[in-house]
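Researcher: Next sequence.
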Amino acid sequence: IAAPSMTWGDTHHAHPLEILAHILGGGTGSRLHRALVESGLAVNASAGYDGETAGAANFTIYSTLRAPTTREALEAAVMTEIKRLLDDGVTEAETARAIRQQTAGALLALDGIGAAPRMLGGTLSLGLPIEEAEYWPARLRAVTQAQVNAAARAVLANPLATTGWLLPA
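Model: Next structure:
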């Protein structure tokens, strides 16, 4: 799904989209995991977002169906979860949990001997100030529930999306 990035579109949605991706598909506590994997429709389900790009970013939702689930049934279940998210919004508890988990990951990344220089280089190569990488954890902590819901509406309500299936030869 085409999404704003740190350098393109409504850039104020970038950090809230990081949090949204975690709420929707960031592990076993995510909405997609509960709706698709725990229900037996899919083997896995996840969402991802990387806003550090020149131009539009991608907000990705992916899953692997579990037989005998059909592609149509899995797509319908994903769309139901997206509709639920858009109708009800994310909760304050989901937002707080995702911020804690994402902030912990950001702090670990900044502390790493290899990841921190790559992150700084990537930030500078996009023409962003070094503070964007340096204060990334603080920017994540500042994200609100309302910002996550606004970002969800901006990207998921009328998505510019492509659906692909990997099929056996």
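Model: The longest strand covers residues 57-65. The chain has a mean pLDDT of 92.
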